[in-house]
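User: Second chain of the day. Same drill as before.
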Amino acid sequence: MIKDRKTKIDSAENLLKQHRYDDAIVLLKELSEECPGEESIILMLSWACYDSGDPEQAVKYLNMLLERELQRKVFTGFAFDELVRIYKQTKDFLKLVEICERAAAAQPEDVCLLTELGNAYLQSGRAEKACEVYKKLIDMENDNPAFHCYRGEALFAAGLYQESEKAYLKAGEIDSEQPDRYYFKIAVLFQQAQNHEDAERLLKKCVTINSSNPLYYCSLGDTLVSKGKIQEAFDVYEKAVQCDHSRASLYYNRLGNSLMKAGDFLKASDAFKLAIKYEPAKVYYLSLAEAYRRMGLAEQADVIIREVHKIVCT
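Assistant: Same format as last time:
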């Protein structure tokens, strides 16, 4: 019987490798009836259903396994992990929250499960609940900077901006060798929220702490563009180039794209010309042509495009 079961399992695995999912499902169902306690077979069956295009049936099998997992003192989490992956892929955040709540209730001291629960709340738009979970994690491991960052993100999503900044700065105190990383994280959130005053303030702290990171200068330059401080933005991007001369063309192209978004096509053309100066790549020429076209200089744009095509063809 054991030998026959192993033979069937090997056959099922081969069928799955050949993408013969329907045949594999038939065989795995036979095996699950013969060995109802063999969880690895049910897990394979769920994978086969999912790969065959039947995610609903796959979820049913995984939920069967999850029920068993939740009853154990030692949480294995194989089914849980698969369900989390599926619900994230399908963006079914309500079900994601539901299974995370159940798992966390069964294992209330499990840091990984609590982290998943906090993330699920945040993804489902329940920032306040996420804050509560992350606060619990901080109470459990106050010296973990990641948990303070998680809470900072949730606080920001809840509109508690000052509290969010404090959480990130606390993470920087804990990870005292690189506090600029945490200033940058909260600065990016302010950028995304179009709060360029606070973004500028925090990015300037980043470059004060670590003046050798070109990313900080580029991000500060983008914020300055958004505030209309164009010459300052060019000066800051020049510092990024000084930090890493090998990527100068990429930095100036990024500046050009920021200026295009801001509607300053003339200055964008200047940035793209600088990118071309360091690397005469086709994409930079095309961006320059687009800047000219947006300024109403269609003839100059066409000249550039013709020249680019000549270069490509030769």
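Residues 200 and 220 are 6 Å apart (CA to CA).

User: Great, on to the next one.
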